[in-house]
């Protein structure tokens, strides 16, 4: 509102904005002289100024009060667009130009009070659109109504405004003043209303197009008297939906954010006042960019077939589908057709059709594309067909294929891949040759043609018929069997006397003692297997002597040797048949809740899967030089034109190292858990004899490949040979399985040699409890009926050690000068192998007893067997959880965990048995993680008084736990010290390759050489075959290995040793692979471990996450498990530890209190007798008959009461 020149008009006004802006040319200013400038505030008070100074353009507050300014000229405040507050009070201002305040577009408050202003030009403040406060108190205006005669001040003080206008509205105040003072009335507001008028549109909404996901505004504004109210409807005058995306703007427009397809349609704007209502309609047209509803995928098809690439898209307008190939239009022929649905169909696919195709969905608002690849699978030019042959003959099964790239042919039998051996040969054309066919060779064979595009397969069934004729070896069966029984029994008895009548005197005897089976049943099974195979060997020799032929065994045809009925007789008389187990899974109440000790009845469909004393499983068919049992390298035979290197030479050339690189991420506990876990999964039964069966001479003295001797020969320039004069290192073969995997009671065919796993395959804590009923009862405390394990001497800390073993073996008393303390007794016979392992056995034996004691406290009515089995079940679940959630992710890394996949429940069709390659080569990668020193640390993580200990002195030394501080120093040395980093040039430390089980004046063993020799003993195929299994390339040259074995020096050593990639042993190649980032494994090794651990988990009915194994509440508690918590609970006095004992932590900052670690709440296993809960709970926790009796008693009372 503009002020009128009326005497005594109120000087304090609230001004409504006037919307006129102006700005002048910009000038550059600085802070005025003597003024104070701070940021955007300028203070020029009390400076006797007579004019307005020039100030900085960014000024927002300008204080010019208490000066002598008399006039405000035009443009005095030009360029001050940001000024908000202007203080001009208490000056001597008499005149203000009408454009004095022009340019102050941001001014909100103007203070002019206590000046000498007598008059103001009209519209003096019209240039101030944002002015909110104007102070003019104390100003005296002269009467001047020449500009506006509508304003009159009557004699009684009344203000009369004639012919009111909109500009007159505002706030008014009356003030009376004389020399004695002044008085004011309260403020009043004048509002102006024009005459009523119907609404009329200023802006009408227009039809608008918008894309999905964008925003849109339909403008609508109207005028009228009173001001019309604007509302909107959609469609047939339906109210707008309540949606935060939809809003009406202050001007009346309709604003919609993030538009979707449903927002399209008709919208109506209504403008209403009390005179009338008008409306206007517009459409929102929602356009959607094309998007695929069906996206085409890569296809692999056989040549000559028809292929469809579905491709469908939606959008508005509806997009058009178009196809191109390699950026060009499709061929103009009838074979390439785009269907009405948009799909591309290619009929009678030819090899030249292979390539990339692109589906395009095109519309006016955009285009989307999807590229796909058509792959032409290899096509069989010669496919295998079902064939019937006679036993003892050779057969060739045809299979060849063509494709681009040229496919590689592989064969498998009954799901196990076939590799080159004395039994099988795959010629360059892909044909499979099977030599000396026997009943064991019958079955389904599958030929797979594979290239980088994909694969095709074709299968056939080979049927083997046995003619009823006598064989050349039949006459020699009786004499050979008698000789085999006599010689093997004599050799075993001689070995037992040698081992058990005194302390071990050589590493060979120490190793034999260490591995000698404790279970009598295992001994008898191994004996029977040796007799069975030795009988066949003797028959072979008799036949060869009569024929005057070469006796090296490489050309021997076993299925021509003995008739099936005589093979069955050999099985009976050797003891193979007598020692077969007959499974009884009829006690379903027990087998639904608990494991057996020997692993039987875990899989109710296949009760022997994963059981102890069964053959290892195979990924690939075994490779023996004679197709039956002769290891690679046992003779001078050349393989792929090269002689296999001596395992000892491989060890000294590329594996042994004095240099150790500490692991910057993981502790030595990573290795120790791996070894402890391995001793829960597998233990190969080795020959019971140290002497050869033929004449009883010790294997170490004769150095010949004569069963069971398979010595590791020293190269001519080996330092050991020069130093000791020895020609070989002790090694005996693993015992064969009777019939080598036959499940039939009639062993009427010869099967390739298989080896026996002494343990259950499952992660079931068999290293704590044993893998047979005999072993379990030996370590249980049956007398107390408390479900506990036997305990040994109690230390000063109050916690017990493991019990001592009674009787042989006596490998821990090898040196009377050290200590007469015997071995400890545990669930696995290898518990005393080295001190770190012994400490872990001690921890877990204590954990069982701790859990059993708590379960007994919670359930005092449980009997000893119930407590034992429940505690055993919990311990096994803890080991599973630690392995798969804390240990394996560090070993496999993210890539390996993805390869293994998530747990989707128990699968009874998966055999959880341990793979021979896993036990013999792959899982022995842990040997590369072993430090040469076992660290022993006190509570301050400083060396104990006795110091650290070299690894070779830690073997079979339980006396050091008894006499040198217990298990705590060893445990701290495992989780408090960095482990050994696996480096391709630093594989096994020399404590393992040069001083294994070392004794004075004796030849120590070499673990790396033993691993290679054991692989050959077990018929493990070469590394290249496992590369093919794991979908890596088949290496033809050593340069083909550059992606996996990246060290050129290592590849050069392999070439110098083996000559060709086809000959390289599995173990050294796996160890030489470069680690996959984030893991501790190479690609092939990762494939093998992921395969094995997936089988162990998915094929275990008692897997802890399998619904029914534990209740949900119990499972929640089991997932609180950590190895750190177990160590805290069961060590002697460890109080500080890192939460993840596998990861390196800095002491003391990285260590926390044991009290802060989560623990299992065993109350979830408390037996409840409440009737309403009993039915559901009984399936998870054994409920005593006492509880059942009480429940039934009260239930009967209830029924009686109701009656």
UniProtKB/TrEMBL annotation:
Could you confirm whether the keyword Protein biosynthesis appears in this record?
Answer: no
Compartment(s) of residence: Secreted
Q: Which domain of life is it from?
A: Eukaryota
UniProt KW keywords = Disulfide bond, Glycoprotein, Heme, Iron, Leucine-rich repeat, Metal-binding, Oxidoreductase, Peroxidase, Repeat, Secreted, Signal
One Pfam family from the record: An_peroxidase
What are the required cofactors?
heme b
User: Recorded GO terms, molecular function?
Assistant: heme binding; metal ion binding; peroxidase activity
Annotated binding of heme b, by residue = 927
Q: Which GO terms describe its cellular component?
A: extracellular space
Signal peptide span: 1-30
Q: Which residues form the Ig-like domain?
A: 199-285, 290-375, 378-463
Its UniProt entry gives the catalysed reaction(s) as:
bromide + H2O2 = hypobromite + H2O; L-tyrosyl-[protein] + bromide + H2O2 + H(+) = 3-bromo-L-tyrosyl-[protein] + 2 H2O; hypobromite + L-tyrosyl-[protein] + H(+) = 3-bromo-L-tyrosyl-[protein] + H2O; L-lysyl-[collagen] + L-methionyl-[collagen] + H2O2 = [collagen]-L-lysyl-N-S-L-methionyl-[collagen] + 2 H2O + H(+)
Sorted alphabetically, the Gene Ontology BP terms of this entry are: response to oxidative stress
What family is it from?
Belongs to the peroxidase family. XPO subfamily.
Which PANTHER family does the entry link to? OXIDASE/PEROXIDASE, PEROXIDASIN HOMOLOG
Tell me the protein's name: Peroxidasin
Give the originating organism. Answer: Cyprinus carpio (Common carp)
């Amino acid at each position: 509102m503009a002020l009128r020149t009326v005497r005594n008009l109120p000087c304090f006004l609230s001004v409504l904005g006037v919307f006129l802006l102006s700005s002048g040319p910009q000038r550059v200013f600085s802070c005025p002289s003597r003024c104070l400038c701070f940021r955007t505030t300028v203070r020029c008070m009390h400076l006797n100024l007579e004019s307005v100074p020039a100030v900085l353009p960014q000024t927002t507050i300008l204080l010019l009060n208490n000066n002598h300014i008399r006039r405000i000229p035009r443009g005095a405040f030009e360029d001050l667009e940001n000024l908000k507050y202007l203080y001009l009070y208490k000056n001597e201002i008499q005149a203000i130009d009408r454009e004095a305040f022009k340019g102050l577009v941001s001014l909100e408050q103007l203070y002019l009070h206590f000046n000498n202003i007598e008059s103001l030009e009209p519209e003096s403040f019209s240039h101030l659109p944002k002015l909110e406060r104007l102070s003019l108190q104390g100003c005296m205006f002269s009467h001047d109504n020449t500009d506006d005669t509508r304003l009159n001040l009557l004699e009684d003080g009344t203000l009369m405004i004639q012919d009111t206008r909109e500009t007159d509205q505002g706030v008014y105040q009356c003030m009376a003043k004389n020399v004695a003072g002044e008085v004011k009335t309260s403020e009043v507001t004048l509002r102006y209303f024009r005459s009523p008028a119907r609404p009329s549109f200023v802006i009408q909404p227009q039809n608008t197009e918008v894309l999905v996901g964008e925003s849109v505004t339909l403008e609508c504004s109207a005028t009228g008297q009173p001001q019309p109210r604007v509302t909107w409807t959609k469609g047939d005058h339906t109210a707008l939906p309540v949606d935060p995306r939809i809003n009406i703007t202050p001007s009346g427009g309709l604003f919609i954010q993030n538009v979707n397809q449903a927002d399209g349609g008709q919208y109506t704007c209504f403008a209403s006042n009390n005179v009338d209502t008008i409306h206007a309609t517009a459409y929102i047209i929602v356009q959607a960019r094309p998007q695929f509803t069906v996206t085409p995928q890569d296809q692999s098809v056989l040549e000559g077939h028809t292929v469809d690439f579905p491709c469908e898209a939606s959008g508005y307008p509806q997009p058009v589908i178009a196809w191109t190939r390699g950026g060009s239009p499709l061929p103009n022929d009838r074979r390439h057709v785009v269907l009405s649905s948009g799909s591309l169909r290619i009929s009678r696919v030819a090899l030249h059709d292979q390539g990339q195709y692109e589906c395009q969905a095109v519309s006016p608002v955009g285009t989307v594309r999807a590229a796909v690849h058509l792959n032409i699978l290899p096509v069989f030019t010669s496919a295998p067909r079902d064939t019937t042959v006679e036993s003892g003959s050779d057969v060739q099964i045809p299979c060849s294929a063509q494709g681009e790239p040229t496919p590689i042919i592989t064969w498998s039998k009954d799901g196990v891949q076939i590799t080159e051996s004395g039994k099988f040969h795959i010629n360059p054309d892909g044909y499979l040759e099977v030599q000396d066919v026997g009943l064991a060779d019958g079955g389904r064979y599958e030929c797979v043609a594979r290239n980088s595009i994909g694969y095709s397969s074709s299968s056939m069934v080979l049927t083997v018929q046995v003619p009823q004729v006598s064989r050349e070896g039949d006459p020699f069966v009786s004499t050979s069997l008698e000789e085999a029984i006599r010689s093997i029994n004599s050799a075993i008895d001689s070995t037992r006397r040698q081992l058990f009548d005194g302390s071990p005197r050589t590493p060979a005897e120490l190793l034999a003692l260490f591995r000698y089976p404790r279970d009598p049943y295992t001994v008898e099974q191994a004996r029977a297997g040796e007799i069975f195979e030795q009988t066949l060997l003797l028959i072979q020799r008799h036949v060869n002597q009569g024929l005057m032929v070469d006796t090296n065994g490489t050309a021997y045809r076993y299925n021509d040797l003995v008739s099936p009925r005589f093979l069955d007789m050999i099985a009976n008389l050797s003891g193979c048949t007598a020692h077969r187990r007959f499974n009884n899974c009829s006690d379903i109440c027990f087998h639904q809740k608990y494991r057996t000790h020997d692993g039987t009845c875990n899989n109710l469909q296949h009760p022997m899967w994963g059981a102890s004393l069964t053959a290892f499983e195979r990924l690939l068919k075994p490779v023996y030089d004679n197709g039956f049992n002769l290891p690679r390298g046992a003779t001078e035979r050349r393989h792929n034109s090269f002689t296999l290197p001596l395992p000892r030479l491989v060890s000294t050339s590329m594996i042994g190292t004095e240099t150790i690189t500490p692991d910057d991420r993981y502790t030595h506990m990573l290795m120790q858990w791996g070894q402890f876990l391995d001793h829960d999964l597998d233990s190969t039964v080795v020959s019971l004899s140290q002497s050869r069966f033929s004449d009883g001479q010790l294997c170490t003295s004769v150095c010949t490949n004569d069963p069971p001797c398979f010595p590791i020969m020293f190269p001519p320039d080996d330092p050991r040979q020069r130093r000791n004069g020895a020609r070989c290192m002790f090694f005996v073969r693993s015992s064969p399985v009777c019939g080598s995997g036959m499940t039939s009671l009639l062993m009427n065919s010869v099967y390739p040699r298989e080896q026996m796993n002494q343990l259950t395959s499952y992660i079931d804590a068999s290293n704590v409890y044993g893998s047979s009923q005999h072993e379990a009862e030996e370590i249980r405390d049956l007398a107390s009926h408390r479900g506990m394990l036997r305990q040994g001497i109690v230390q000063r800390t109050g916690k017990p050690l493991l019990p001592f073993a009674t009787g042989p073996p006596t490998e821990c008393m090898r040196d009377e000068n050290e200590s007469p303390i015997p071995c400890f007794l545990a669930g696995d016979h290898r518990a005393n192998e080295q001190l770190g392992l012994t400490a872990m056995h001690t921890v877990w034996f204590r954990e069982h007893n701790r859990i059993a004691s708590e379960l007994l406290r919670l359930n005092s009515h449980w009997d000893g067997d119930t407590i034992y089995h429940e505690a055993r079940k919990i311990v096994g679940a803890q080991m599973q959880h630690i392995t798969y959630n804390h240990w394996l992710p560090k070993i496999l890394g993210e890539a390996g965990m993805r390869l293994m996949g998530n747990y989707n429940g128990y699968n009874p069709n998966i055999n959880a048995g341990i793979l021979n390659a896993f036990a013999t080569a792959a899982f022995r990668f842990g040997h590369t993680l072993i430090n040469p020193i076992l660290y022993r640390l006190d509570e301050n993580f400083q060396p104990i008084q006795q110091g650290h200990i070299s690894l070779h002195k830690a073997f079979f030394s339980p006396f050091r736990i008894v006499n040198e501080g217990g298990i705590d120093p060893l445990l701290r040395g495992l989780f408090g010290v960095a482990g050994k980093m696996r480096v391709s040039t630093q594989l096994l430390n020399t404590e393992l390759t040069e001083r294994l089980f070392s004794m004075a004046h004796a030849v120590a063993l070499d673990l790396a050489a033993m691993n290679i020799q054991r692989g050959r003993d077990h018929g493990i195929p070469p590394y290249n075959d496992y590369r093919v299994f794991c979908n890596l390339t088949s290496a033809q040259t050593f340069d083909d290995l550059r992606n996996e074995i990246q060290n050129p020096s290592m590849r050069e050593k392999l070439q110098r040793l083996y000559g060709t990639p086809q000959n390289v042993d599995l173990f050294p190649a796996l160890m030489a692979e470069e680690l996959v980032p984030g893991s501790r494994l190479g690609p092939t090794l990762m494939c093998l471990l992921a395969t094995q651990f997936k089988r162990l988990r998915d094929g275990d009915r008692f897997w802890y996450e399998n619904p029914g194994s534990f209740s949900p509440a119990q499972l929640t508690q089991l997932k609180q498990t950590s190895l750190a918590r177990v160590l805290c609970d069961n060590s002697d006095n460890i109080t500080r530890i890192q939460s993840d004992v596998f990861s390196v932590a800095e002491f003391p900052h990285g260590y926390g209190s044991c009290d802060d670690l989560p623990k299992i709440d065993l109350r979830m296993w408390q037996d409840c007798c409440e009737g309403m809960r009993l039915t559901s709970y009984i399936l998870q926790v054994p409920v005593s008959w006492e509880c059942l009796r009480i429940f039934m008693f009260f239930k009967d009372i209830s029924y009686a009461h109701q009656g």
